[in-house]
């Protein structure tokens, strides 16, 4: 889920070591857009506390740009965007489901489970290779195979907003930054891979 397409997964293979070299983990990569101008979105965080600062986004952006210039994996122009996962972040790794246990999430699978592919409820952790979720309106905890997930995201709730405010306060930021998903931790770098 960290990379949706084969191209995303190839970029992850190339860029995971780059992120690790600057002390970060890539949460998700998406290469979006058509052939004229594409956007490479990288969401990253520190593995120690699952947070990221603006300076770290900029540092990762520079490191990624160097590797991308040398490897040239994307034909044509693209815009590089490095950001935090945001408050209502995507859940792409098993650890994400443990970190946000008790928070509301939406999950989508690539196949039917008891007649549906979409699920909403409170995360209840991880059990082996399954994500545990207390589904809305059901008594039993459902177990959904992690490998069957194609999309998972936290739902914006008061509890999640409170958690985000606590993280911002710990960083010494204002209580309400008024910024969209991705928050203040975004570095956008225009890049051209047309070096021919």
TrEMBL record:
<dbReference type="Pfam" id="PF02576">
    <property type="entry name" value="RimP_N"/>
</dbReference>
<comment type="similarity">
    <text>Belongs to the RimP family.</text>
</comment>
<dbReference type="InterPro" id="IPR028998">
    <property type="entry name" value="RimP_C"/>
</dbReference>
<dbReference type="GO" id="GO:0006412">
    <property type="term" value="P:translation"/>
</dbReference>
<dbReference type="GO" id="GO:0000028">
    <property type="term" value="P:ribosomal small subunit assembly"/>
</dbReference>
<dbReference type="Pfam" id="PF17384">
    <property type="entry name" value="DUF150_C"/>
</dbReference>
<dbReference type="GO" id="GO:0005829">
    <property type="term" value="C:cytosol"/>
</dbReference>
<keyword id="KW-0963">Cytoplasm</keyword>
<feature type="domain" description="Ribosome maturation factor RimP C-terminal">
    <location>
        <begin position="91"/>
        <end position="157"/>
    </location>
</feature>
<feature type="compositionally biased region" description="Low complexity">
    <location>
        <begin position="182"/>
        <end position="196"/>
    </location>
</feature>
<dbReference type="InterPro" id="IPR003728">
    <property type="entry name" value="Ribosome_maturation_RimP"/>
</dbReference>
<feature type="domain" description="Ribosome maturation factor RimP N-terminal">
    <location>
        <begin position="14"/>
        <end position="88"/>
    </location>
</feature>
<keyword id="KW-0690">Ribosome biogenesis</keyword>
<dbReference type="InterPro" id="IPR028989">
    <property type="entry name" value="RimP_N"/>
</dbReference>
<dbReference type="InterPro" id="IPR036847">
    <property type="entry name" value="RimP_C_sf"/>
</dbReference>
<dbReference type="InterPro" id="IPR035956">
    <property type="entry name" value="RimP_N_sf"/>
</dbReference>
<feature type="region of interest" description="Disordered">
    <location>
        <begin position="167"/>
        <end position="196"/>
    </location>
</feature>
<comment type="function">
    <text>Required for maturation of 30S ribosomal subunits.</text>
</comment>
<protein>
    <recommendedName>
        <fullName>Ribosome maturation factor RimP</fullName>
    </recommendedName>
</protein>
